[in-house]
Design a protein that fits this description.
Layout: H1 34-38, E1 53-58, H2 65-81, E2 84-89, H3 92-103, E3 111-114, H4 118-126, H5 134-140, H6 149-152, E4 155-156, E5 166-167, E6 170-171, E7 174-182, H7 183-188, H8 197-209, H9 223-235, H10 238-246, H11 256-270, H12 283-291, E8 297-301, H13 305-311, E9 317-320, E10 330-332, E11 335-337, H14 345-355, H15 358-366, H16 382-396, H17 411-424, H18 429-446
Parallel strand pairs: 1-2, 1-3
Antiparallel strand pairs: 3-11, 4-5, 6-11, 7-8, 7-9, 7-10
Helix pairs in contact: 2-14, 2-15, 9-11, 11-18, 17-18
Length: 455
């Protein structure tokens, strides 16, 4: 779920530039087992000899595409290596709030699903809490499968800024945020699925006229901030995105893009498109409200797709990109990281490689996910084929616009707090944007990075 799933962040001290080097490992295709892997060496990192168990953490739902695929990867890993997996499912919030403390302790897992971006994986990498994966990337040839925008979220420089530097995370799927429509509810009220933004607003007004709140939202976690960012992207250019995400130039917080997005959210609340009562709702609340048929529209990530396929049986639903989107909220999927304290890095890397195997990737695709290394001919579900095709088009058009909480380690919660005030009416758009700017600038300064001067 990134939804993202989400989602996200940790308070941290000023970023440090400590780095670690880790072991190389032979590719899965030529692997001769665990003992052979141990001979590959781990540089200066002590690796446990003849381990009998590795510990894996993730926060995927078992019925979701990633959950199903990674469960299969665990079976393959155990059969191939003879090493047992101690799997521990955590909530996104558990990992988000406690990652730095856990990874700096002996309780750290050997491999962990983690959120990507400057403020999350970048922060931990810069603090020396994540293993440098460069040698594993070379040995397993992961960089032949993970390229372009998908690779950006796995690489971080010494300041923890994504897009360049060393590899600290490996993704095996993609994600973007899109519209989920309850077709039965649209048909019930004689409303067409919208193709343009005016059509979307007209459709939402018809639902309101019939006593239905159209958008399933949550402000306590990520759903509304993703909608806000999508509205920003409707007006933002590439220069704005680079300034906001990569500190390349100055961010105009009272400019057209941010003002339009913030004013639109306020307008949609006033019109009843978004309920004022959603300020305390979490992502799971919003997702379940769509699943239960309470609201006809849900704007959230592809991480819900497989779950909805599995769980929704009482109505027909469809998906589409946000109307008239030039850029799309999204990126690679979450990343596998190997904690620096792990003494089983070679085994952890072998497990990661299995998640990129055709068997696991094809299963993910046929379970409603967005695999990055599947055999297209092996994907049999028409709805999933359409999803994958849409995402591939987004990649080809360079439409990924990343996520709004990435720039600083505290901005996820701060952005939600500003949007909560906007929704409940205690802050107007200008005030909310000033709050965002203050928190953004404070976080960037605490991270020890500086915006480049705008050209």
């Amino acid at each position: 779920m990134t939804a993202g799933r989400q989602c996200r962040l940790l308070e941290g001290n000023a970023m440090k530039s400590a780095k670690r080097m880790v072991a190389a490992a032979v590719s899965l295709a030529t692997s001769v087992g665990v003992l052979g892997l141990a001979a590959c060496g781990s540089g200066n990192d002590a690796q446990e000899k003849n381990p009998s168990m590795i510990k894996i953490w993730d926060y995927e739902e078992q019925t979701g595409a990633q959950g199903k695929a990674w469960a299969q990867a665990i079976k393959i890993f155990e059969k191939k290596t003879g090493v047992k997996v101690k799997f521990e499912k955590k909530s996104f919030e558990q990992i988000r709030q406690n990652a730095s403390q856990i990874l700096n302790s002996e309780e750290a897992p050997d491999v962990m699903e983690y959120n990507k971006g400057n403020a999350t994986a970048g922060l931990l990498a810069s603090q020396g809490l994540l293993a440098n994966l460069n040698d594993y990337v070379s040995q397993y040839h992961w960089d032949t499968k993970i390229q372009g925008a998908l690779a950006d979220t796995g690489k971080y420089n010494d300041k923890g800024i994504m897009g360049s530097g060393d590899w600290y995370g490996i993704t095996n799927y993609g994600e973007d945020v899109m519209m989920y429509y309850n077709k039965n509810m649209f048909d019930k009220y004689g409303i067409a699925i919208p193709n343009t933004l005016p059509e979307l607003e007209a459709a939402m007004q018809k639902f309101v006229d019939n006593g239905v709140t159209p958008l399933s939202e949550g402000v306590a976690e990520y759903p509304l901030q993703h909608l806000w960012w999508q509205l920003v992207l409707q007006k933002a250019n590439e220069k704005f995105i680079q300034a906001y995400e990569m500190y390349d130039g100055n961010v105009d917080w009272q400019g057209e893009a941010t003002t339009y997005a913030t004013q639109t959210i306020q307008d949609w609340v006033k019109k009843g498109f978004i309920s004022k009562d959603c300020t305390g709702s979490k992502a799971e609340d919003a997702g379940q409200a769509f699943e239960n048929g309470t609201h006809p529209i849900f704007f959230s990530g592809t991480w819900w797709f497989g779950r909805f396929q599995n769980d929704i049986s009482t109505f027909n639903w469809t998906t589409a990109l946000f109307p008239e989107a030039k850029k799309v909220v999204g990126s690679s999927g979450n990343i596998w990281v190997i904690p620096e304290k792990s003494k089983k890095k070679d085994l952890a890397a072998q497990f990661i490689d299995i998640t990129l195997s055709k068997e696991v990737q094809n299963l993910m695709g046929n379970s409603g996910g967005l695999p990055i290394a599947a055999d297209p001919s092996a994907i049999t579900d028409p709805k999933t084929k359409e999803l994958i095709s849409s995402y591939n088009t987004v990649l080809k058009k360079n439409q990924l616009g990343f996520y709004p909480d990435w720039p600083t380690s505290t901005f996820y919660d701060e952005l939600n707090a500003s949007l909560q005030e906007l929704v409940n009416g205690t802050a107007d758009p200008k005030t909310a944007l000033n709050q965002m700017k203050t928190n953004y600038d404070k976080g960037v300064e605490a991270a020890g990075v500086k915006h480049k001067e705008a050209n």
